[in-house]
Amino acid sequence: MHMGRSPNEVMTKKILHTAHYFVIMNGNLQSTIRNLQSTIRNLQLRRPPMSILHLSGVRLLLPCIASSLLAIGMLVGRNYMGHQGYWFLIWNLFLAWLPYCAAIWMAWVVQRKQTSLWLTLLPIGILWILFLPNAPYLLTDIVHIFGMHFVWWYDIGILFSFAWAGLLLGVASLHIMAELIATRYGWLAGWGVVLVTAGLSGIGVYVGRFLRWNSWDAILRPRILAHDLLNIFSDPSTYPRLIGVSGFIACVMLVGYLMIISVQPRNISNSQKV
TM spans, by residue (predicted)? Predict the structure, then answer.
């Protein structure tokens, strides 16, 4: 006589069937995960040329334009004040732009993956290497001020090295503070800190260079320092030099700041993009 299955046997069979199903699904899931991991690794090892064009080229375009406009603006201002000359620097700057444009062109050609890739890249590469020295050549235009003596050049190198180190340290610290503010209050507040701090730094450089005040004097002799600052801002005759020096330092800091954020990875939140 055939006897029916007990409820326990039925439940056990259902549990075993469900477990078998999950084992199969788990195996398929693990296989899928392994395939995804392999695909991600391949994509990381073979980044598309677009990343080269975007990261190394286009993202540096803004600071390059800003620094060039700053240089041209200073030259125009010099001639506007009656000190004529140095217009040849614009031509030298144009030549310095050519290797950058050639590099962008080469990245664009690589991105398109043309059949005759090397036939196209070779002449562009030759143009790039030929015109590349025009970029650092602008450093040698200081010869028009100091002459060709070796000691002058060595001293210029020392001053430039220290100036570059100081600018880099200042801009890096500004970037850290702006990131802290942007993380908490948003990107608009972060940029506000950048602009205000750059302007105050320009005024601080003017006070230190021409009035010979030090940073610690704001703590040790605040009244005398405040008196001198009031005299500066109340005397219109000091405005041209004050605005010129402070504005120049502020613009240099902003250009340096743009250069730093232009090479920063873009995998951050919108609130931190300052």
Answer: 52-76, 88-110, 117-139, 151-174, 186-207, 242-263
Q: What is the mean pLDDT of residues 48-69?
A: 66
Closest CA relative to residue 129, chosen from 157, 102, 149, 89: 102
Assess contact for 105 and 84: CB atoms under 8 A. Answer: no
Distances (CA, A) of 233 to 168, 172, 205, 245: 30, 30, 15, 14
Q: What contacts 24+ positions apart, CB below 8 Å, involve 83-86? A: 86/144
Q: Residue 264's pLDDT is what? A: 67
Structure tokens at 140: 């040698």
pLDDT in tens, 192-214: 999 999 999 888 888 888 888 88
115 has pLDDT over 90: no
Domain ranges of the chain: 8-46, 51-146, 149-274
* Residue 236 half-sphere exposure toward CB, CA atoms < 13 A: 0
Mean per-residue pLDDT, 137-145: 74
Take residue 99 and report the two structure tokens written for it: 């290797």
d(CA 174, CA 184): 16
How big is the CA angle at 22 (ends 20 and 23), to the nearest 5 degrees?
A: 65
Per-residue pLDDT at 29: 53
Sequence-ordered list of residues with C-beta below 8 angstroms from that of 82, at least 6 positions apart, any chain:
none
